[in-house]
Specification:
Bound molecules: NADP nicotinamide-adenine-dinucleotide phosphate
Number of strands: 9
GO molecular function, one term: 3-dehydrosphinganine reductase activity
Pfam family, one: adh_short
Family: Belongs to the short-chain dehydrogenases/reductases (SDR) family.
Helix content: 55-70%
CATH architecture: 3-Layer(aba) Sandwich
Strand order of the largest sheet: 3-2-1-4-5-6-9
Keywords: Endoplasmic reticulum, Lipid metabolism, NADP, Nucleotide-binding, Oxidoreductase, Sphingolipid metabolism
Number of domains: 1
Order of helices and strands: EHEHEHEHEHEEHHEHEH
CATH topology: Rossmann fold
Structural class: alpha/beta
Subcellular location: Endoplasmic reticulum
CATH superfamily: NAD(P)-binding Rossmann-like Domain
Length: about 270
């Protein structure tokens, strides 16, 4: 089903985006990856090319900032022109700056919302007319466990991932009527440059709260994303923790908060 399709993947030069791009390329997809750093883009393009199964497959790497509407629109229009309208759009570009709320400037909140939320919205708006015209397409949005429940130390990031979830849940029914499928991914902690970066500023309380969760590989999350696309799942929840959480988070939230507060108190005793 995925063979010979065109997938556009923002954040495709690293982590979950790159792993998913490679898996799609290994299934015969034409691939466009979009992010900012040209060196990372070029290196990822070579990696993606190396797993293609046919010399006819196209791999395009375009530099653009998803938080700049004109920049990302222009990249998407170039991809459409040079390859074809996209069958799949995956919005994986994202940033995370965990820290105590008092340490997070308003700039961080604005930047996180600009990249994670508006960077997702701009891409969807840019592909919608061609998907609508063709009455087909699949949009895959990346949220997070922090988009299901607010987590200590993640005030900027959680808000942006909740916003993505709100957008996805509202859009699902509207897009369905246009023949366009939508999936929302809640990846667990995944071993990527983003997680490495997060660990530098994560408060100790946040580290303790997230310590029990297993860290996934980007490839394993990518495989779950492909499975979710093939099954046309609205919610893609890699692993049992995310699957359970996605179903019962509201009911379980008082208990989860109790656990969070106890963990925070334990850590603070030793600070
Ligand atoms: N890793 C985890 O534990 C985890 C857990 C839950 C959810 N997620 C979500 O999964 C997605 C992928 O995360 P990851 O861990 O794979 O991160 P990553 O390895 O750091 O990759 C992020 C990608 O986004 C690109 N990017 C960042 N800002 C951008 C911008 N303004 N414009 C265009 N591209 C931009 C980066 O390239 P440039 O910097 O060169 O632009 C890079 O290609 C994110 O949305 C993240 O929030 C990750």
């Amino acid at each position: 089903m995925i063979k010979k399709q065109h997938s556009i993947i923002t954040g495709g030069s690293s982590g979950i985006g790159k792993a998913t791009a490679k898996l799609l390329a290994s299934l015969g997809n034409n691939i466009t990856i979009i992010s900012r750093d040209i060196n990372k883009l070029e290196a990822a393009k070579q990696e993606i090319k190396s797993v293609c199964i046919s010399p006819e497959q196209k791999v395009l790497a375009l530099a653009a900032d998803v938080s700049d509407r004109l920049s990302i629109e222009s990249a998407i229009f170039t991809a459409i022109e040079q390859i074809s309208p996209p069958d799949i759009l995956i919005t994986s570009a994202g940033i995370a700056h965990p820290d105590y709320f008092q340490n997070l400037s308003i700039d961080v909140f604005e930047q996180t919302m600009a990249v994670n939320y508006f960077g997702t919205l701009y891409c969807i708006k840019a592909v919608l007319p061609v998907m609508e015209k063709r009455k087909k397409g699949h949009i895959v949005m990346l949220s997070s466990g922090a988009g299901l429940m607010g987590i200590y130390g993640y005030s900027a990031y959680s808000s942006s991932k909740f916003a993505i979830r709100g957008l996805a849940e509202s859009l699902r029914g509207e897009l369905k009527l246009l023949g366009i499928n939508l999936s929302l991914v809640y990846p667990p902690d995944t071993d990527t440059p983003q997680l490495e970066q997060e660990n530098k500023t994560k408060p100790p309380e946040t580290k303790a709260i997230t310590a029990t969760a297993k860290t996934w590989t980007a490839e394993a999350v990518g495989q779950e994303i492909i499975k979710g696309i093939k099954r046309n799942s609205f919610m893609i929840t890699p692993g049992s923790e995310m699957s359970i959480l996605a179903k019962i988070h509201s009911l379980a939230f008082p208990l989860i908060n109790q656990y969070f507060d106890q963990t925070v108190a334990k850590v603070r005793k030793n600070l």
